[in-house]
Sequence to fold (180 residues):
Amino acid sequence: GGGNASYDQTFVTYEAGRGFRPLDFTTECVSNVASGSTTWQNVRVPNGTTWTLSGDTAINALLLQGSDPNKVNTVVSGTGTLKVRSGLVILGYHRNAQPRIEVPLDFGNAQGVIIIPQGKSSIITQPISGSNGLVVAQTTTTVSTGSGGSGVSLPANCTYTGDTYIFSLQGIGSSTLPSG
Fold:
């Protein structure tokens, strides 16, 4: 299951003899982990909730679902850095709000991969770091130029190194992408 019957989003895994299958949110994901901890858990922040980090926290992957029926943003906030060990962040589908990541993202030595829904806007407000580049991609092969607010707004002063690949509409300021 995902956040919307018409636009399901989730992590997948591969099983020999079965092929790819979606992860089960109840047994293969958690809704949060303790701030300041290190784990290989996949974290799914449910619609309309805020996950607050008061210390540096390391997880395997992040699915930030969209909004709840009351138009409440789904947010990761606080003062700690979120270390995403696999590099995968999915900013989920949302009808009336913006998934927001308001903490620094650190992909370590994994390639950072941020997946966003087409035609919807999401926000990352703090710098992105890591040593193996960044991919930002929409969940469709056709980029809609008529969808106002599409893509993700990337933060200023990112310090990651490596190549940058962008497969979507992006709001990129002059000091967003690292140079050198």
